[in-house]
């Protein structure tokens, strides 16, 4: 591979990854993404309804101490992102973390990792489409929900079909809107805290301890809030899925990882800190819907009469951006499965613009499901979708961390230095993995996410069983035998 690693792909038979070459077996994908676009794609998958709306639930559990929950989850997201960037710099091939798991943990891990992630993200595509449709009802309450859901779904599929370059540009500007909104929020908050706004005295820090103390619900409430906080960081793993379409993955992925971690930590941790310092947690906690979002309350405290309308537009863009990124990620995951022989070969066929259209259209089944859900029971199914997505994403993080431990263990001592490296590994990796396991267990005690554990467990078992069926029956084509990394 030219990376100096001594790892050998361990599998023979269907699904054996071929790590040779900078893009693995996927050289036909167009390398058209820049580092700034890759960074924004990662942010696009992360900054969404989990931060803007889910923060209210987290605040109700932990009070002002919720900042610590978001900071802890940010550290784990940092570890996952850096571990992925380090491995991707050594193996910049299609399939991202799933292909890396295949190389270092074997075909079972590669199969389960990618299929569980694909299923979860397809569900997530549907949930974001439903969320976007719900946001439009603030302006047109009488509009049937399925109409905006269908319009948004078709629009996002169209963005992904055109070309990866168009997708990258579109997502860059969509993510910039969210980033710009957060910058405005942080700026208004800082002025209100330190100096005061027109007609208002400086807020100071009284809200942190003036309503029952910093942690009114104790350590239990703080830890339960960590589950919701973790959900706000899901999506950073999409970074590695861009490697095969980066113009220079060895340079761009590490650079994008650093930018993503810095922006994500600043926006999430500082954003929540500003909210709980200005809006009493007893008012911000447990907010339901856009109008009651703690971020809307922050806008309102600045004297903006159109706070709810502005925030509704921002969360609409956030949902569409996340949906757009998830369509990209699921299509590339399915393309990778087809390339490694774990999905039908037709899913690897590319359009004239280099887009895996077959994989994209199959991934868009989540959008079709969203249209059906919007007709039947959007509120209840929407909550289940989010819970299952969190479970599957945490499992994905856990396998990524296990892959990194194996990657470090198998890397030659005299291998050339990589452009990015996770400090303190493998101990930092193991500590992050322990955190993820603890959050998974905690889901059983968090009513909002318990259903995700109940549904996600059988899903994981089903996908694992499918691996042995596919392997035994040779359902998919058998790719070439892997070559050892040189």
What does this entry show, briefly?
The chain is built from 19 helices and no strands.
Q: What features would you describe in this structure?
A:
The protein has 486 residues and is mostly helical. It has 19 helices and no strands. Helix 6 packs across helix 7. It is globular and about 70 Å long. The termini are close together.
Write the layout of secondary structure elements.
Blueprint: H1 35-46, H2 49-52, H3 55-62, H4 66-90, H5 96-105, H6 107-136, H7 146-162, H8 164-194, H9 206-209, H10 218-231, H11 249-278, H12 281-284, H13 294-301, H14 307-339, H15 357-363, H16 365-376, H17 378-410, H18 427-442, H19 447-473
Helix pairs in contact: 1-8, 1-11, 1-14, 3-10, 4-10, 4-11, 4-17, 4-18, 5-6, 5-17, 6-7, 6-14, 6-16, 6-17, 6-19, 7-8, 7-14, 7-16, 8-11, 8-14, 13-14, 14-15, 17-18, 17-19
Q: Estimate the strand proportion.
A: under 5%
Largest sheet: none
Order of helices and strands: HHHHHHHHHHHHHHHHHHH
Number of helical runs? 19
Oligomeric assembly:
single chain
The overall pLDDT, averaged over residues, is 78
Shape: globular
Helix content: 55-70%
Radius of gyration, CA atoms, in whole angstroms? 22 Å
Number of strands: 0
**Structural class of the secondary elements?**
mainly alpha
Low-confidence segments, ≥5 residues, pLDDT <50? Answer: 1-27, 477-486
Q: How many angstroms does the end-to-end distance come to?
A: 5 Å
